[in-house]
Design brief:
Blueprint lengths: L5 E5 L3 H12 L3 E6 L15 H4 L1 E4 L2 E6 L5 H6 L3 E5 L6 H4 L3 E4 L16 E5 L4 E2 L5 E3 L10 E2 L2 E2 L18 E3 L4 E5 L6 E2 L4 E6 L5 E5 L4 E6 L5 E2 L4 E6 L13 H18 L2
Parallel strand pairs: 1-2, 1-6, 2-5, 4-5, 6-7, 7-9
Antiparallel strand pairs: 3-4, 8-11, 9-10, 12-19, 13-15, 13-18, 14-17, 15-16, 17-19
Helix pairs in contact: 1-5
């Protein structure tokens, strides 16, 4: 394996960041492609925040926003990961990566094809291994989390979040109305059931409160000022109040998925 092998990861949210961090830790060059306005909830562990802030750091990995592919080399030379706004993956042809990982987690394919690289990997539902991409990695919590599929799709999106601390759907908060999202609380705040964590400013001038159903730690919160449709995921509460540091650490789920991606990448690059 050569250190100049290039892996392109589409997406820089919290699950994608787990994969990016694992590949970077293994000494591989990674280029992250993101949307113009990322909507990550777990922003403290999402490298896509570099799009807004210019740069961000997650568990020792520094990500730097770049305006073009020509700037990537300088970022890699500093031991960091470049993040390029390219939601359609238009730069992939010029980058000529050895591997493309679709980690957008959009529950559908937003344009990733097997022609993009010698090895293509997709995370979660919306892809068929052996057709859309070479491999799919299962992202649904449970016994099959992280399994590598060479044929067929991952488990379909159930719409029900995985259970943490005895809570599933209750721990995820959605916008009660369409409008502009405004933070009232901050990530890592302790909250009680019924607390207002944010408001949505509607076009009619209303300020609709966004409340949590359960008590715990506000683990994820959408960026202030983001325009949201009704029902959009805007926050995440972890009922395990003793685990405050989890707000700033890559999750067990993300690391499990990342291990499977690294397994596929190393097997390809060692050929």
């Amino acid at each position: 394996m050569k250190r100049d092998h290039l892996i392109v990861v589409r997406g820089g949210g919290d699950l994608a960041t787990g994969t990016i961090h694992r590949l970077w830790s293994a000494g591989l060059r990674v280029l992250v492609l993101e949307a113009e306005h990322p909507a990550a909830i777990r922003r403290q562990v999402s490298l896509c925040e570099a799009v807004y802030e210019g740069e961000t750091t997650v568990e020792g990995l520094r990500a730097v926003s770049i305006a073009s592919l020509t700037e990537a080399e300088a970022v890699w030379a500093c031991g960091a990961v470049p993040v390029l706004v390219d939601p359609k993956g238009e730069s992939i042809l010029a980058a000529k990566p050895d591997v493309v990982v679709d980690a957008i987690l959009a529950k559908r394919n937003l344009g990733t094809t097997r022609a993009m690289a010698p090895l293509t990997i997709a995370l979660g539902p919306g892809f068929a291994a052996g057709q859309d991409v070479n491999y799919v990695v299962e992202t649904k919590r449970g016994h099959k989390l992280g399994r590598i599929l060479a044929q067929g799709p991952a488990a379909p999106n159930s719409g029900v979040p995985g259970v943490i601390g005895g809570y599933g759907a209750e721990r995820v908060i959605h916008a009660p109305a369409a409008g502009i999202f405004r933070d009232v609380r901050a990530i890592a705040d302790l909250v009680e059931a019924g607390d207002t964590v944010a408001v949505v400013e509607t076009p009619e001038g209303e300020r609709v409160p966004v409340k949590t159903q359960i008590s715990g730690i506000l683990r994820g919160l959408l960026r202030d000022g983001y325009p949201v449709p009704k029902g959009f995921k805007v926050a995440d509460v972890d009922p395990r109040r003793a685990e405050l540091e989890n707000c700033f650490l890559i999750s067990d789920k993300a690391r499990c998925i990342a291990g499977s991606v690294l397994e596929l990448v190393t097997a390809q690059l060692w050929k």
